[in-house]
Design a protein that fits this description.
The structure is a homodimer of 214-residue chains. The first copy, chain A, has 214 residues and is mainly alpha-helical. Helix content of chain A is 74%, strand content 0%. Chain A is built from eleven helices and no strands. In chain A, α4 crosses α7 and α8 packs across α9. The longest helix of chain A has 27 residues. Chain B binds a DNA duplex (30 and 30 nucleotides) through α1 and α3.
Chain lengths: 214, 214
Amino acid sequence: MRNLQPDQTMDTRFRLIESASEIFIERGFKEAKIRDIVEQAKTNLAAVNYHFGGKEGLYAAVIQHNAALAIQDMSPAVSEARAPEEQMRLYIRTFLKRLLDDNIQSRMSKLIAREVVEPTAAFNLVVEQFAVPLHKTLNGIMRGILGPNAGEESVRRCSMSIIGQCLYYQRARRAVQRLDPDFSYSPANIERLADHISDFSLGGLRALAQRRAS
Amino acid sequence: MRNLQPDQTMDTRFRLIESASEIFIERGFKEAKIRDIVEQAKTNLAAVNYHFGGKEGLYAAVIQHNAALAIQDMSPAVSEARAPEEQMRLYIRTFLKRLLDDNIQSRMSKLIAREVVEPTAAFNLVVEQFAVPLHKTLNGIMRGILGPNAGEESVRRCSMSIIGQCLYYQRARRAVQRLDPDFSYSPANIERLADHISDFSLGGLRALAQRRAS
DNA sequence: TTGAAATTCAAACAACTGTTTGATACAAAT
DNA sequence: ATTTGTATCAAACAGTTGTTTGAATTTCAA
């Protein structure tokens, strides 16, 4: 049974979750090797099975841990800004930053992105609990721009057009670097990229809204 | 040494390349198991090493073989249509179809898409020889719509916005199905999806072109 | 037909990787 | 101090997977 005193036990658990978070995010569930995780956590190979029952248990703990860290500001994009156009800009900037920066707060977004593109046993949990709400938020913003007459189908496809653009820059990093040698993943350039995706998408949305109006 | 007569040798080589094409495309290089490939090819485990020198050699042969099959109509989008807007529609429809249909002709596009998202040892070859030309074609179309005053950077980002949308529907299939239960990967719906991406992107491009003009 | 080269095959090999084991160390409680 | 439960560790285990081996078979030219 688990012991919550601040002793070595908790330290090992914590160190394991920390290094596992990094390695799962970097390489994905299948390619992440337990031996690499325990080495980085400065503990023994058997520790994963002892504390988490196995690799899958560790992965579940990683999701739970990072969900708790991110839950506070998971969807901050909507409430603050007023016009849906500004909500969208904020949503895109926030999402893209999380996919591409190094913050601990952003880990859950990266885990979700992984599950979306290469599902594991935790797919249903992660999508149901995190991806669906995020998507619903974006759908709401899309509807705000497209207007009340837009069909649900059109709304969802616009959301996916935006998500798709953002994910591309995360998943296809090496190809991006080759196809656009000037491109940099610096914070400043990520801002500029978010602006491009926002401008591009806003143009697309307005065109769709207009077409529907005619 | 290789013998080109139409005997059992060539049959085995051919069957191996065929089943390997399917399995590499379906699961990716790392997850494709030689034992599955040889079983589907109805031959022995050692055949891969005998005929191709190893898994990597087989993968290289798969790329070469499918490149030869697709080379004839790799970039047919540009020449036929006149207006760049129509070129773009055709490009998107063709690319999306190839990513999502079951044609043998489309295999090379799927292999390229895999390399873009999860590079293997063949990344440089594949990107240099196939992805770069495809991208240049699309860049040309983008420039046709954006006008001569658009910066190279803007052109490239628009290309990537389009590619990103298309790749999303291929790579995130399971998430798409969950987030949009009505969505179907039927040929008819793929056409409609291509229309959406085209409309959305055309709106974005026109907005960018206009902003530049002002 | 015969013999050499090419091909196929079952088996073994070797490296990798998640899991289990049994011994040891440590902590807190009686 | 002894006991008990917890934690750590090195080692072994078991399954998977790419590769190699050596014998058997087939092919084909002389």
